[in-house]
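Dear colleague,

Thank you for sharing your sequence with our group. We've completed the structure prediction you requested, and as agreed, I am returning the results in plain text so they can be pasted directly into your records. Please verify that the sequence below matches your submission; if there's any discrepancy, let me know and we will rerun it promptly.
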Amino acid sequence: MKRRASSRTWWSSSLIAMLAAAAASAQTSGAGAPPTGAQTEKPQAPETAPAKPGETPASSAGLAVVSLGPSREVKLGENTWFRFAVQVQAWAQARQDRSLTSSDGGYGYDFFCRRCRFFTTGSVVKNVFFNFLFEAGNLGKADLTTGAKTSNGVAGPQALPQVLDAYGQVKFADAFWLSAGNILMPLTRNGTQPTTTYLTLDTANIASTPALQGNSYVLRDLGIQANGFFVDNHLEYRLGVFQGSRQPANGTAQTAGHNGPRVVASLMFDFWDPEVGYVNGGHYYGTKKVLGVMANWDYQSFRKDAPGLPAPGTVANQPGGTDKNAYMGLSGAAFMNLPLSGQASRTGGDELAALVQVGYYDGGFTTSATGVPTNEGTYPNVLKQFNLLGEAAYYNHAGRFSVFGKYEMRKISDDYVAALKAASNVTWIQGGLKYYLGPANTMNFTLAYERIISNDAPSTQQGGTNNLTFAWQTILY
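Please find the predicted structure tokens below.
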């Protein structure tokens, strides 16, 4: 009996010792609750660039174990970790027809997933990161003409599914990061905002202007990009060379794509708090005080000796041996995120946010006074135009709601005939309300009204139509 009691005492003592050691090891490796000072109130935007998570104390030598880091990343080693994320934006929408006569009230109705996303970011070794985003965009959305719904593997308003972000990144120094893969091009300030923190319902309509040639993947493209930070991270540059449009071959003996790459560059300066993510802007929910400016430049040129792309209204490629004006886009923006308390707070607070953005784009397509093409250009679908965007929102932290308004305009050059301008001269005016069920952007409802004004609509169509959208967003990151 004494021997059995002694044995039980020995096993109990050993079990307690092992549990205590395991608890100490987990605490040392960063598992469990985040350490004091770790941010838990505001979830980070899912498209932000992989950045090294909060440091955890170095563990003693021994077997490597999987642990949970302070930012909820799965850690496989000191500099090897990853995070998973899921995003769902479900929309119910009523769109008014442009037709002057309709038997059912003039509205079409749609229910679809604006963005259904799964993605992961992480670190391979020290200063080597990756980002992968997989999306079913506009899942279930009905085609505006046939009514056919977009589904997985079936082409509709957007082919599904597709890979968006997919790149590796190396940090050589604060002033020089290098990325390669499918990357979000820095075309405009609004176009590089996180999809989870928009001030209004969605990205601006004019953010798609530099993508009208149809040669990118939701504002992304394959290429190599360098970026870096100066002046204590207040000044950022980005410079990338991308696939862009590839010129058709000149005859059967030549391969396609002899033209140069698309070159995209941006320069951003923050006067107050710096922004150092892959994407930035939108709401910061009182956690950051931002005032800044951004400039963007976009360029690609086709060669004269090879064919070009079809001009508007045609199906045949322009022949080789003809001049092709270069494509160029310019954009500039001023933006602000002002915590109404006067100072940014880690736990958030009331915020006033605003953005003003202008853009000039010219794909190189020119015509005579009668509309006959004189130069098809490099991006013939990007007509020469001026873009304007202004948006603002007020976020109330205690009430967990925000109100917003937006004005944007696309003005096609008077160099074109009326038929070309009629479909593209558009003004959008939007307003709405958001209610946040979870902290910051984890879950929210949006109700938005939009007035679409067709400035040069023909007499057979309405000059303005209305859209009403209810959106539900859920994000886990």
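Summary note from our side: Residues 1-44, 51-63 have pLDDT under 50 and may be disordered.

Kind regards,
the structure core
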